[in-house]
Amino acid sequence: MSIESALALVVAIFVLGITPGPGVFAIVARALALGFRPTLVFIVGVIVGDLVYLVLAALGLSVIATQYSAAFGLLKIAGGLYLIYLGIQTWRSAKHVDTGLTPTPERGGGRSFLSGLSLTLGNPKVVVFYVAFLPAFMDLGALSTGGLISAAVVVSVTLFAVMAGYAWMASRARALFRSNRAVKNLHRGAGGLMIGAGGAVAVS
User: Fold this and answer.
1) Whole-prediction pTM value?
2) Mean pLDDT, the chain, whole residue set
């Protein structure tokens, strides 16, 4: 992959990552509720989902999406419902928080990873990006194996920088909440944000 193609890909992925959507809302919500480090595993899941679509796009995503539209629809609904479930759990956790703002431990990083992965795989915004938007920047079908690996590295680094930035800023905002009532409202707000993002994915 040439330097020009790599720079074009960075710009395209930066636009995808920074544009508000279910993924951004979910990351911000989790960082508000859990803190920065616990959110990183979720971000890795999101990035892996993008890499899946990158590979599919290189293989002809539009054809695959047409042939397996029902499967994509079910995956989208499942991802949205799971995010709603996480939002409800975050909302309910407001009953047990304290003003110390210690990040709430999450049971198993695998669950966090899978929730990020399922959110991305079921996100219509990501599908549209890899089907219609990214091909305008580069010819994915012409990438060699080495070029595809290089593109995967560019996508991973760019997305991680953007999403980790969102998570870091959201985790810093936790420090603004000192009273017990404010922390509870923070968890409820984060839960509501996740529920809204899940609903947007499921019904879109």
Assistant:
1) 0.69
2) 74
